[in-house]
Amino acid sequence: MKKALLIITVITALFTAACTGGLDSQKLYGKWKYVKVGVPNSSPPDTVTTADLQENKPYIEIKPDGNLNIYWGGKLLSHGTYKIAGKNLNVHEILPDGKSRDFPFFVSSLSDKQITFETLDKDGSRVTAVKE
């Protein structure tokens, strides 16, 4: 009986992992135009205005070769590499002074046309973007 219960538990765990798995890399690749940016955990919560988004046209470009670029106001704001780890993009950002930093972007939703990702620290931001 214990053996049967163990087998059922393992099968259920594998099925759950398969259904909730990681990110679909094919959906992830591309140029994503920011349509909403906010800092939900700030007090009071803060958001970037629609006018600011329209003026600066921010976007993130996620490439199949493991590179990503973030643009704001027509200029490269940030760049580096990433690796997919479950629902996270683990980013290795190259800073202007030659240093680097590592952080995750948690992808809370991803479809063919829209992505929502966020940094999960205390002052983390949440971005919703649409694929161009």
Task: Describe the protein's architecture and organization.
With 132 residues, the chain is an alpha+beta fold. The protein has one domain: Calycin beta-barrel core domain (Lipocalin), CATH 2.40.128.20. 11% of the residues are buried. It has three helices and nine strands. An eight-stranded antiparallel β-barrel has the order 1-3-4-5-6-7-8-9. It has helices at residues 2-20, 25-28, 50-56; strands at residues 30-39, 46-47, 59-62, 67-72, 75-85, 88-94, 100-110, 114-118, 126-131. The model is unreliable at 1-20 (pLDDT under 50). It is globular and about 35 Å long.
Number of strands: 9
Uncertain regions spanning at least 5 consecutive residues: 1-20
Would you identify the CATH H-level superfamily? Calycin beta-barrel core domain
The name CATH uses for the topology is Lipocalin
Largest sheet: 8 strands, antiparallel, barrel
